[in-house]
Amino acid sequence: MRVRVRVRVRDAGPHDAARLAQFGAQAFADSFAADNTPENMAQYLADAFSAGKQARELADPTVRYIVAEAGGTFVGSARLGFGDAPAAIYAQRPVEIARFYAAADYIGKGIGRALMEYCLQAAAQLGCDVLWLGVWERNTRAIAFYEKWGFTIAGTIGFQLGADAQTDLLMVRTVPTAES
Fold this sequence. Notes:
Elements: E1 8-11, H1 17-32, H2 38-48, H3 51-59, E2 63-70, E3 73-82, E4 94-102, H4 111-125, E5 130-136, H5 140-148, E6 152-161, E7 164-174
Parallel strand pairs: 4-5
Antiparallel strand pairs: 1-2, 2-3, 3-4, 5-7, 6-7
Helix pairs in contact: 1-3
């Protein structure tokens, strides 16, 4: 029997920077620490999840952070961002979903569903025509989740994790607009 958690999903604000940094770093470490060196993880976490970086991104009009809370605790987050898309994506207004996380203890309890519904609504409001994201190819659970939401694999994309070059699957889906 699946247990659902009562969750509140909302846009993050400037006051959430420190909590968002802590949650994101913990969720990323929970997902990837076992498969990376401690040095690479430490470097990446420091670069990607500092409270200062989160505060700057929260103030950036091309970025939208979304958080899921249960009982006042962050249990999920997602970052939507306009910007350059991989060459394999042909779109006028692509938006990347990054840092789409559910806390380890809350996976399978409706957090991902609530976040994705909110992300799709936010993307449509932003006038986005394609959503894209990178998914670790060995994370079959995440791949299945995104496929359930209409994402398909369109290729691969590379990124740096500390000193290591890594590859993710590039997954994309179109965003229906209010007009269509």
